[in-house]
Design brief:
By secondary structure, this protein is an alpha+beta fold. The protein contains five helices and six strands.
């Protein structure tokens, strides 16, 4: 594993343990050249997936990109990193289990919307504003008025 700080190709694993959902192995590493410490994750990848965008272009599926978009929607919300990780892992597993190598970006977006709706309304609206390409305040108003009411019990 190459050191992200100095580029040295010799690093040592200092600690390995499974993540909470047992979906990955977390490894703490130490660079033999500069002494920097960093963490890597090892995950099973069932198949190479390609995302087909709305304009027809294709791009490799990137789990990290999915994670970042969900994390941005949930920024400053009271949702743990573990919950975000479980949400992303669940979406990736659903996509992989479909058995398709080409995944429409619309499907990924809908899965994220569905998952966020069950976790946090504000994150759901944030994600929807980008995903559905809101242009003005009226777009937000129309979207929010269409949300089902939730009653605290």
């Amino acid at each position: 594993m190459r050191c992200p700080f100095c580029g040295n190709e010799e690093t040592q694993v200092k600690d390995s343990r499974p993540t909470e959902d047992n979906g990955a192995i977390r490894r703490r590493r130490n660079c033999t050249a500069c002494g920097a410490r960093f963490t890597t994750f090892e995950r099973v990848q069932l198949r190479e997936m390609v995302v087909v965008k709305k304009n027809g272009k294709k791009a490799p599926f990137e789990r990290d990109k999915l994670y970042r978009s969900v994390a941005i929607a949930l920024r400053k919300r009271n949702v743990s990193q573990e919950r975000v990780e479980k949400l992303v892992t669940g979406i990736v597993r659903r996509l992989e289990s479909m058995g398709e190598s080409e995944i429409p970006s619309v499907l990924v977006g809908e899965m994220v919307m569905e998952a966020l709706a069950g976790i946090d309304d504000v994150a759901y609206v944030r994600y929807a504003s980008v995903y559905k390409n809101f242009r003005e305040a009226r777009d937000f108003e129309e979207f929010v008025t269409g949300l089902p009411e939730k009653h605290d019990e």
